[in-house]
Design goal:
The protein is α/β, with parallel strands linked by helices and 252 residues long. Helix content is 54%, strand content 10%. A 5-stranded parallel beta sheet has the order 2-1-5-6-7, with helices on both faces. A two-stranded antiparallel sheet has the order 3-4. α4 crosses α5. The longest helix has 22 residues. The protein binds ligand PTJ. The site of ligand PTJ has 27 residues, from α2, α4 and α8.
Length: 252
């Protein structure tokens, strides 16, 4: 039992949920390691959505609203932490949802899809025979995608993704949007838009941004995402972290 007044109650509850879903087979043990890394970067950005993340989210929503075929790629950690918000966001912006796992097995595909269906999804791609297409240049199970999903997508939104797969999707001509707390990861560096923020904050915020931005016309939406510069924004994330650490060290 985590005491109600524990200062890090929320964070401990999230850990408990990941462990529980690992026991149910949706999350892999490596996902716990990835989460620990994420927690560390979250500390560095003050465990709050900063300006660089807000700008990246606005560009993301604008891009998705002007996409022909947007797909949200969901792995074990994403489904464990944000299934409800992912499903609500996908519904609002008309995006498909596809299970795409680094450590793929049929049992895990089903376990992750089940979390999404429990959260209200009407359709989940990438399970079993549906993941029958392959991403060239990637090997083993990591290359499988759905011909009705990622293979066909013009825009792919993903989180906690491996660098090789991000690079392969970009080479395939996909517009890749990554949610990654680590601004230095290969995924963060290679994506077209990187949201350096915790995915538990990202989806609720993007839901309200979708309401706000859907009032803009197509030209205005295109201006929002086309004027976004990912490298500059990643630079701002790193400067924010470094300035914050300098400030914190002065306060000691
Ligand atoms: O479910 P699977 O089989 O697809 O496997 C998923 C994991 C997460 C195990 C796999 O994709 C993996 O090994 O990821 P990495 O290479 O460890 O990358 C995870 C990245 O996500 C790191 O840069 C973390 O800082 C970041 N991260 C961790 N938790 C969060 C996060 N970013 C945003 N929100 C989080 N909650």
């Amino acid at each position: 039992m985590i005491p109600e007044n524990h200062p890090r109650r929320q964070s401990l509850l999230i850990r408990e949920r990941l462990v529980e879903l690992m026991e149910r087979g949706a999350v892999v043990p490596q996902g716990l390691i990835a989460h620990g890394r994420g927690e560390c970067f979250d500390y560095l950005i003050g465990e709050a959505t900063q300006g660089f993340a807000e700008r990246a989210m606005r560009a993301t929503v604008a891009r998705i609203l002007t996409s022909e075929y947007p797909v949200i790629s969901v792995n074990g950690n994403m489904a464990a932490l944000a299934a409800k918000d992912i499903v609500a966001f996908a519904e609002k912006v008309g995006a498909k949802i596809e299970v795409n796992l680094f450590y793929r097995s049929y049992e895990r595909e089903k376990a992750v899809a089940e979390l999404l269906y429990e959260a209200g999804a009407k359709e989940v791609l990438g399970v079993g025979d549906d993941a029958s297409a392959t991403i060239p240049e990637l090997f083993s199970e990591r290359r499988r995608v759905s011909p009705r999903g990622i293979l066909k997508a013009d825009t792919v939104l993903l989180g906690l993704e491996d660098g090789d797969r991000t690079e392969a999707l970009v080479r395939l001509g996909k517009f890749v949007i990554a949610i990654d707390l680590n601004p230095l990861s290969r995924t963060a560096q290679k994506a077209n838009i990187t949201i350096v923020d915790n995915l538990t904050r990202v989806f609720p915020r993007m839901l309200s941004l979708a309401d706000e931005l859907s009032k803009l016309n197509r030209q205005e939406l295109e201006n929002v995402w086309k004027s976004f510069d990912n490298r500059k924004n990643l630079g701002e994330a790193l400067r924010f972290i470094s300035d914050r650490l300098v400030q914190l060290s002065k306060d000691l």
